[in-house]
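FAQ: What does a multi-protein file look like?

Like this. Sequence, then tokens, then the next protein.
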Amino acid sequence: MITVRELIAVGGFDENAILAGDAFLEKELLGVTSFDSPDGHRWLRQGEFVLTTGFPFLSQTETIEAGLIQLIDSLADIGTPGLAIKLGRYIESLPFAVIEHAAQKQMPILSFPMEKAWSDVIVPVVRYIVDKQRSELEQTHAIYERFHRHLTIGAPVCQLAKLLQEALNAPVTIYSPSHRWNWTSPFSELSQSIAWIERQCGHPAPPAIMNQPLVLLENGSYLRWVLCGQQIQGGILIDGLHRDLHSWEKVAIEQSAALLSLEMQRQQTVNETYQRFRNDFLQWLVSGHAGPRGVVTRRAQEVGWELDDHYFAVLLRADVSSQTTMTSWQENHSLLELINRYFSKTPQRILSGLDRDNHLLLLVPFAEQQAPHADSEIFALLQQALLSTGEMPAVSIGIGRRHLGWEGISESYREAQISLRTAFHTNDHTHTMGGHLPLRMQSYRDLALERILFAEQPNVEARVLAEECLSKIVQYDAEKNGQLLQTLHVFIQANGNHVDAAKSLFVHKNTIKYRLQLIRDLTGLHPENGQDQLLFRIALTVHAVGRHS
């Protein structure tokens, strides 16, 4: 295709040939034809430029002005890019009303020289179109050859920005945050556009982008969205063109986008395979049978991880209405991809995967001197990660306590499992994020009776609870010949009444308070607190049953 402006030059029109519509000379045309019959426009094709003497508009029933206006309307409806009239033969000049109407209809009108024949314009224009098409075909073939050679020699995708820049002779940037691609050719300055692309990445592509992924931006640059499946994963930015693209230039852009999408699919396949190995490693690590430190380190390196000294476990599950195995896996796998994509842009060294129940498992590193109850940081981090995407189902989160060393990972994981079941089955810790995403979180340290109710083996969890609550008390009594365990039992039997407990033990109530303070120092639990008192009551019952048995 050529423009009306090119037709003026190729057809040998005079510089003053433009009679109307000079603002629309960039309209494209497919060919040139002529007619001199009143209904000749009926056989025109869209995109044909018209040559005429003006004879059809001589009528006894209407003026030349009305006839031309009617013709312009008919040609505009057909999609005619413009027309040229032989002035001086039947029409001396173009009426001003016709010039105005042509501008409204975006219809360029030229003055056709009296001395020229139709063929003096049609032949060179057709030849020019054919030559241009041949040139574009050759350019397109050359583009296909260059990209085919790039593919067959196994050149890395990071060279596509340079290859595309050479083909378009314009600065190019290829950007994909999830794949950590930020490849630029020289003189590329599109930082603001990159920030905009990053906000769109990871979201489903709307129908408009699926149908037309190449977009002309307001600043005159072009953006070709790069899709993987039906998700936006990045973009190709072309700066400095400020014009329509040639067909071979569009081919170059599409070839680049196709190769990038293929690379994304390849990496996705590799990552999914890699993730399965990571899932197996995590399950092995939380099982409590990981083995010697050297073996654990070597296996971690095999899946690309470098381990920290201490971790606590966090479990997440997408709360979907249909809890079939496949639906649950798909939702939790999507949740894993979201979390991994978010963490890839942060300095966090969190280990992530799916456990045997297809729940999202995170092992979060912590420092030995870190506060044992600092769960707010991981909650805020997960909140930001979940808010970084579009619509997501409700999510339940269970957090285990911090235990030192790799040996403590299995214990923290067991606690996270109990916390997750508690969060899913209760609504006491529900948070609404962004007004649409309920987030149910439960920390193990906040549990009381739920520790036993939601445990896989309640009897085992009860014994663990008794050990945690009473072991230091029993040890203190044995070493110091104390009476802390008896005092705690009596105090709880007295429903937390210091005076009644003192009477039962024949001591002053301040002695009771002193002994309870020792218990607080040893266990971190407060016998006067209702929830901790419940834990002590359960622990004492289990301890008594175990002692008798």
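And here is the next protein:
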Amino acid sequence: MKTPLLIAAIFFTGLTFAQEKKSDTLQTKKIEEVVLTKQVFKKQSDRFVYDVAASPVTKGNTTFDLLKQTPLLSTTDDKTLKIAGKNNALIYINGRKTNMDAESLTQFLKNTPAENIQKIEVITVPGSEFQVESSDGIINIVLKKKMSDGTNGNMRMSNSQNKYNSSQASFSVNYRKGKLGISANLSGGENIQAQSYILRNGNDFVKNESVGDIDDPNKNLGGYLNFDYQLSDKSNLALSWNSWANKSYGSTVELLNTLKTYNSDGSLDKTDITRSSNLENARNYNNSVNLNYELKTDSLGSKLNMNAAYLIYKRFQNSNNKTIVENPAGVFTQLRQNVLQDIPQIVNNFSGTVDYIQKFKNDFTVSVGGNFNATKTDNDTKNFFNYYDANGNLKNIDPDLNHFIYDEQIYGAYVTFEKKFSDKFSGKVGTRYEITKSLGTSEIPDEPMQKFERNYNNLLPYLSLNYAINDKNNISYAFSSRMRRPSFWELNPVKNILTEDNYTQNNPFVKASSTYNQELTYMFKNSYFLILNHSYFKDVITQVPLQRDIVREGKTYRQLAYIRTNFGDKQEMSAMLGMQKTFFNQYLTTNFNIGVQHNINKGTLNTDPTTGQVFDTYINNRESSSIVIQTNNTIRLDKKKTWFLGVNYFFVDKQQIELGMLKNLMSLDVSIKKNWNDWTFALNVNDVLRTNIVEIEDSQANGTYNYIKNDQFRRGGTFSITYNFGNQKVKKVRDIEGASDAIKSRTR
């Protein structure tokens, strides 16, 4: 059910869930009558730096827990991290992107002790040297530099209870001996992702409602294995392998559909009731290998970094979608329609990157580099539509076959200049030039081969300026231009059936969208902040809900299709005021943010660009303003720093998105944690008030309306036990960026 039914998933990508916490106060020490101060949170050049070694919330936490306490970061689902106003947060370790998929990365962060971390850098507007898309930001985790030989690791087990029970376990180990460093991780788990839906659409004459549940069982197993060898004092060679597998067999959708037609005077004409029953089996595999070479060229920090990577992603998915009506005895057993779908996807990618950083003695840095990606996707889709007559007898079979192959090459080069002019003023300017060449071919039996060719070049400038007015006041500005390429599954022209008259349609004609980001930041005393942000999105890639009347066997039905396409432009403007402080001798650490966001949407569509079918015109030329509030609080309950209570809350006011008006969302989360020697016991209760439920409604001037209510059963509890073993000072030789990382995010 993942691909066709994650309709609600796109709702969250456009939300500005309140950032999170800002700076910590100054830490004070007394050493022989001398008072020293250290800044815990500060602005440096193009990034915010959070010195967690000086923070009171580090002890006993995992890296993920620590990131949730980091200024400007937030999470609303305890799985993904967001940066102030950003759609996504990319994780880097020691300046290099982590080479693992989203699920295994989450487990890695939740099982890495926070004591290993020196500082966390938050880059809200990344420079030209970073391969990011759209308005993505970067979280760079800097590990402590102390190293010693030995072995360490941890084991973690957790059990969660939402609508269903789930469990996870992981084992991580690091080994260091002389010039060789080895790190490995193995994790797995089982869960059932449950959702409920209420879908309504229609007009004054035809109204449709679908109500029901989705149960998606998952089994996951994955991990990584990294070898890093120090060839000399100046060079290193590393080999990394990452793997993740997911099995989802027996995923079900059960919906009851009620169609009502009305006469011109508003009286009810007839009612048609059906059941949609969908059974899906899916499995996917993600494997990547990365070879890295790094050479330090001088004592100032200049270095050469080269990567070569191969990635293969496979997904196999088949489903049996039945539309069932009542038999003469009034029981839902008689078939009206049966759709058999086979939707595989195979992605092969080869990638290479070269980066060189030259540092000069006068605080001047020049960075140059390039990248190459060659990707081929193979999608051999087979659909068979079986139609039945009024007596339930098979009437005809309509095959829908499409073998879609997509080839893409991306060439990129960048140059960045960074200069510290004085202790108060610094700046960074750069540009990235990207060339994209792609060709899609669609083979349909008895039809001429279709070709979809897209070639485009993009110049993506970047600028950031930072000025420290004095010790208490800092102001900075950043601008960047980025692209957002469609994910490979979005290009596959496949139709995913939800009900007889409700489906999603992907689109090989989708082109890359452009994003222009501006951000102005003011900080006071490293504890209070104001962030003004403006983002302009051109040719937004999204799903558009299109409706039309269709006549079948003399009856009028209302069809609803979620069409994947480029849908106009939008703007997001936000102002966020926040505070991050500790009180009562560090017994209370509080992060509080409040802000306002203004969205402007402009888009019009009435035709499916893949099939050419014409629908009622859908228009979203609307604006909305909304309030965003978030606070995270950590309360130390004892002097020994072994008991901690967490109370977190967020509220997002209603706002206009591509699909209509999203109603307000909020969640109250509570946690308690106990540190005991090398053990950590934690209990987290999420969405205590059960208010994190998605509702979207839209009504058009032509009388068409659409309503969605999606409950993902976020209220629940998780109990976890973590054990750290071995020499906790052991660190990896270094963490390696994978050349295929920019491609991985587009496979999901």
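Q: Is there any per-entry metadata?
A: Some entries carry free-text notes. For the entry above: The mean pLDDT is 85.
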